[in-house]
Amino acid sequence: MASFQGLNSLSASIILCQVTFQEFLDLLPEERIHTFGPFVGETAIVGFLQLLPLLVESLLMQIKILEHVQLGSHAETREY
User: Fold this and answer.
1) pTM beyond 0.85, yes or no
2) Cβ neighbourhood burial of 19 (10 Å; 0-12, 13-18, 19+)
3) Which one is predicted more confidently, 80 or 48?
4) Hey, which of 2, 22, 62, 67 would disulfide with 9, CB 3.0 to 4.6 Å?
């Protein structure tokens, strides 16, 4: 979380000390702003929300790559 616009390590720590990352993602955008805006700033939360779709897309791509690599390594070991 801390690597995204508006959120630094302290902001991310404040959020993650109160909820898990999954719980944070499960909140509606308005709930995130209302719950955490007073602590880390509304601008920080809004900036993070704007980048959230890119984060999800990036994570899904990394998962696909890892799955492909794992499948490839299993295929190589079967050949021996």
Assistant:
1) no
2) middle
3) 48
4) 2
